[in-house]
Amino acid sequence: MTEKPIQLGLIGLGTVGSGVYETLCRNHALLEARCKIPFLVKKIAVSDLSKKRDTEVPAELLTDDWHDVVNDPEIDIIIELIGGTKTAYDIVTSALRAGKPVVTGNKALLAEFGSEIFKLSSEKGTPIYFEASAGGGIPIIQSLQTSLICNHIDSIVGIINGTSNYILSAMGEGGADYADALQKAQELGFAELDPTLDVNGWDAAHKALILATLAYGTTISPDKIFVQGIENITSKDFNFAKKLGYTIKLLVIIRLHKDSGKLELRVQPSFVHDWHILASVNGVFNAIAVTGDIVGETLFYGRGAGKNPTASAVISDVITAMRERLHPEYHTGFLPYAQPYGIMDINETISSYYVRFQVADQPGVIAEIAHILATFGIGISATSSAQGVSDCNGIIWNDLVFMLHACEWGQLQLALQETAQSQFVAPNPCVLRIEHLLPKA
Amino acid sequence: MTEKPIQLGLIGLGTVGSGVYETLCRNHALLEARCKIPFLVKKIAVSDLSKKRDTEVPAELLTDDWHDVVNDPEIDIIIELIGGTKTAYDIVTSALRAGKPVVTGNKALLAEFGSEIFKLSSEKGTPIYFEASAGGGIPIIQSLQTSLICNHIDSIVGIINGTSNYILSAMGEGGADYADALQKAQELGFAELDPTLDVNGWDAAHKALILATLAYGTTISPDKIFVQGIENITSKDFNFAKKLGYTIKLLVIIRLHKDSGKLELRVQPSFVHDWHILASVNGVFNAIAVTGDIVGETLFYGRGAGKNPTASAVISDVITAMRERLHPEYHTGFLPYAQPYGIMDINETISSYYVRFQVADQPGVIAEIAHILATFGIGISATSSAQGVSDCNGIIWNDLVFMLHACEWGQLQLALQETAQSQFVAPNPCVLRIEHLLPKA
Q1: Is A292 in contact with B282 (Cβ distance < 8 A)?
Q2: Residue B332 with chain A: CB contacts under 8 Å
Q3: Which residue out of B207, B249, B258, B262 is catalytically annotated?
Q4: CA distance readout (Å), A311 to A137, A139, A234
Q5: What are the pLDDT digits (tens) for A144-198?
Q6: Are strands B39-45 and B6-11 parallel, antiparallel or unpaired?
Q7: How far apart are CA A216 and CA A263, in angstroms?
């Protein structure tokens, strides 16, 4: 055991920060026994010193100025858990410039400024650790960096937003409406008062960018990812999905197309076969399926957010940071196997689709849509429909579902522009991709 | 990049050994870029030099004496992949004594001699790595050692034998008989010609002992684990399971009972709710669910055996071994958080049960069994039955299923000894535990 304890500086004592502090206290004996390094929390920066907290913290640890933490010469490692990208950027870059290793779970920060931050870390020879940034308690970062190190990554397919997965699960299992499911999620604390980033897919997109960066050795700008949220999915879509042997999940898809050398990179709600293991990932749980050329298919499952699961990931980073602080040469840093992969245009991506139109109950409507799809070379594999209700003009609007054979997204969009011209077809049909995920067994 | 390459010695060029050699060659550029350490395979020991191989290996690398590898002063790291426990024991202990770090995937060796080998490794300050010993390509060892380091482990529940899971999946999905499913598994190379250790549960038990050792910081002798195989399960049991909303899986259960301070440690075929994520683990896939006090429920899924998946795990160890060879002080070794946990007697373990009796179609038989169960304080939650066929004496033997409320295993065994006395009840009913696994969502 080293004599002098490693001194930690914690910035942020919100949900995750308090989980980290409490766990470092509660499981202190276990941690020191396992990592054989004595440590202590030296200082904690909070935004408001007078705030009442559930977590008991000795008053002398607290400061309301993060500079006190970063500039404390005795503090070895900075743990940034305030979220947001403005102050967090200043904290992380100041710490790295001061040669202090950083542990962070800030996905928005890394998605937006990862390229610059990783470069700074590399230039300064000061590590940054971010296990908690892409899957809460799921050890996906370490798995990509070390366990799967000998693999070229073929694809990463994941459910990595707990809020949206909770909403979709409630709609799928209980038949809830979107609005009710969202309200329930908010009541249970699984959704923020402003759930925008969760339901519009951008929280998942931030995590996807971090995963893609690790898997392919290069940072990717946020404007390269195609993102679609879950706001337009209705319980009707779940009814159709169920009948057809599917459920609906918000999937992150990162997939290398070896023939074109291009990366498919998108977040979209999708049909998933009900026998697939991802269909069993319900509620606030997350799962990330990684396929490598050597290991084949793997999947990592767990709580993707929340106080303690995220604290577990943060602390695994803290331990690694302490070990590498004592043996700095051990650190290898960001996996440098960058290939010049382009990002595939969403219009070039191919899959089969579920499309639910709302159509007026008029003779010839089905023929009209089918004809337009055929004109664009798009085949129909199955259809289904459900009786609707009449509008104020006495026109009955039915749900008409087409399951379409594989075609390019761009081609489908052109066809849908054409169907939207018909007075008997409501605009903005619900379009969901059908992901044929391996393996069945 | 270090100047002098690390030199590896490979012992064994069977399925996994050839996968390791091929991957080290094929993905050499990627590996050196990622780990920043040059390396080469210096020597490979095989049992028969004249054997034709699918893997192309320069003849000058080969030797048929493993001592040539261990004793080569230029070889830094020994990779033991011959399987079995006799020669493997000599190889591993010789290498450790010679101060050469060892990478192995030999679960039988570690289950039987782990205590001695870990002690030797610790005394010599020479690490041993064994990621491939308990889940093929699934990075469970590293996850327990580092990612989940801040967690007290509450339980580990897993499907960790691919052969038996393939057989059970074929019986569950396709309605195959046990014998047919086993034959199919053998034809496809998923089962050995002698499948004993796979179907009788002992391969899973070896892996369970390694996982328990890591999770609880102490080695456990193989005679402490209760092991039941899948040989007596029939397609009838799958029919009943399906009707009742379950499937059947061979589960490893490692669970700490905090009240008694005892570890439940067993391998048993069990009913699993069909909505649980473990029910979706089919074919040769494995999955290991780990619950920690901080991270909550996690699950790790992937190919639990086979050439390349296992090679992926072996190579992740090789890379760690190389990094720690260059920075030996970094190595922490076996997690030392041993608590004086006793092992729970199987008779004390409690669960609900599925019991399928074969009973003569006679008035009073159901009453008789129900009465005996009641005498032992065992409640019945549901019953189901299926018409059988008559034997040579013209007696019709029906399948009679009782779903039993939770009781001690020992109590149930006493009751079953009593029912076996009846001339109208066939001996050896099929008893399967019902595992109420969390979480539903």
Answers
A1: no
A2: 34-36, 323
A3: B207
A4: 7, 12, 34
A5: 999 999 999 999 999 999 999 999 999 998 889 999 999 999 998 888 889 999 9
A6: parallel
A7: 9
